[in-house]
Amino acid sequence: MAGSKESFASLLGLKETLRIQSEERAKAAAEEEKRKKERQAKAHEFENAMKKLGVKPVKLHNDVVHHEKAKPDPYPRQTKLDNEAVLTDSLSDHINADLYLDSDERLSYRAKNMAPDIPKKLRAGTWSIKGSLDLHGYTSDEARALLSVFITEQMKAGHRAVRIIHGQGFGSFQKKPVLKERVPGWLIQKKEVLAFVEAPSFDGGAGALYVLLAPL
Q1: What residues contact residue 1 under an 8 Å CB cut-off, 6+ apart?
Q2: Number of structural domains, the chain?
């Protein structure tokens, strides 16, 4: 009789273990499906963002890339900018931006040929902010590509001052502000960028930059 009770208890324990394992598998599958949908949504969002900036995807057929016949471009400067925007790999992630920043109470940078008062004027609104790019939620590679294309498009539009929102990393892995650290380094490497400063508190503060672009 005792052996029968022990067998029954073991059976109940096994059933409970199997139930828990089944629930855990179902939970893991649901979480994976959720992550998959989030990745798909982010990829779709990135694709739409690139389309808005005028970037068209290259279609591949049997590993052969078909290029449209090149047309004469009356604006060689714009063509040069387009080519540079595509070559985003040339923007290093390992630039120590602190070596190039002005000694200021707030983050600021100016190119070597720019007057010392340019950052102050930029922060004060001497140039109206004409365009804005929000990099929240994008990976480092996506943000770098978007930044290059955005700058090119803004220059074509004749805009001199723009805002780049990189955030403060509160939603990042381990709360590390990856884009906040990398965006200044990317901007310093682009000769089209004449200066940038931390945005005023009412317009993004430490999570955004005002950027002064060279005229086209």
Answers
A1: none
A2: 2
